[in-house]
Design brief:
InterPro entries: DUF2268. This is DUF2268 domain-containing protein. By secondary structure, the protein is α/β, with parallel strands linked by helices. Helices cover about 50% and strands about 5% of the residues. It folds into two domains: about 1-170, no CATH class; about 180-300, no CATH class. It has a four-stranded mixed beta sheet, with helices on one face.
């Protein structure tokens, strides 16, 4: 297994010193090009002229620092993610998260992995709602995390990477296409966050779970989501997964759901599944959602008790 780290801090330092005219192409070639296969799979054009001005830079800048924001003024931020120890800890988290699947007799089809951590866009409301950190690992072989670096987010990077590694493994076995439904997403996010806490403890449980209390989960979220599990189409199920505020930011129709409703529901649903079946988180990660949901019918009626 080959894990490659893309040191964004070194790229930021280079771009910060470049002229305004050079920044865009430098960023595109150094930060975006290594993820070319991911952009192709996501059908995001590498250059704007290919699709009415929308390209990887536009997409990436929604959550992350854009090339024009990378100046000497953000040097303190860059400095906070520039230590070798930070990147070694991140690499260790990725390596351990993936290697444990192999140790539990799950042979991974993908052997080459690339990961990086970018500085978050301070103007991103979505990032702010997520307490300053986020990630994406749904394309096998590629993992990206985002943070506004501070004392809260930096220690959470290893858990965020474990979460994204879990997605990365799952989608080496589970096919993602137009038939993907809300049930799969709830299961997937629940698996990923349970894996993060399995690896690094509940103290690093993400805000997408901790912001939901038992009353909200049992009375408001579960009764609605249980009826929507077969819902397909990202624009349709995203509001149930992310909640109304993020849905509105993405121009989706709100459905009266609180922040990250699907994530919180998924976290406890997977805990229920693991307790009921005795399966490991490793076995569960590669199990189809339909199979998992079939085993947890009792979850929807049982009162979930939240202990943290």
């Amino acid at each position: 297994m080959n894990i490659k780290t893309l040191r964004s801090d070194q790229i930021y330092q280079k771009i910060a010193q470049a002229s305004p005219e050079e920044k865009l192409e430098l960023f595109r070639n150094e930060m975006m090009a290594p993820f070319m296969k991911q952009w192709q799979i996501q059908q995001i054009p590498f250059r704007a002229e290919e699709a009415n001005g929308f390209d990887v830079i536009t997409f990436n800048s929604m959550m992350n620092r854009s090339p024009d924001q990378i100046t000497q003024q953000i040097s303190p931020e860059v400095e906070m993610i520039s230590s070798d120890s930070f990147w070694l800890e991140c690499e260790h988290a990725v390596r351990k998260s993936l290697r444990l699947f192999i140790e539990h007799e799950i042979s991974l089809p993908v052997s080459e992995y690339l990961f990086t951590i970018q500085l978050g866009n301070p103007e991103s409301r979505s990032l702010a709602i997520n307490e300053g950190y986020s990630g994406f690992g749904g394309i096998p072989g590629f993992i990206m995390c985002t943070l506004m670096p501070n004392e809260y987010t930096i220690p959470r990077m290893k858990a965020a990477l474990a979460h994204e590694c879990n997605h990365n493994v799952r989608y080496q076995f589970i096919k993602w296409d137009h038939t993907v439904n809300l049930g799969e997403l709830i299961v997937s996010e629940g698996l990923a966050e349970n894996y993060a806490t399995f690896m690094f403890g509940e103290k690093l449980l993400g805000p997408w779970v901790t912001k939901t209390n038992a009353e909200t989960l049992n009375r408001r979220i579960k009764p609605v989501l249980r009826e929507q599990l077969q819902l397909t189409g990202f624009d349709k199920f995203a509001p149930y997964l992310y909640g109304d505020e993020i849905a509105k930011l993405q121009n989706f129709k709100p459905v009266n759901m609180p922040f990250s409703a699907g994530y919180a529901c998924g976290y406890y649903l997977i805990q229920y599944y693991l307790r009921k079946t005795g399966k490991t988180i490793f076995e569960a990660t590669v199990t189809p959602a339909a199979q998992i949901l079939d085993e947890v019918k009792g979850f929807w009626d049982e009162e979930t008790i939240i202990s943290y």
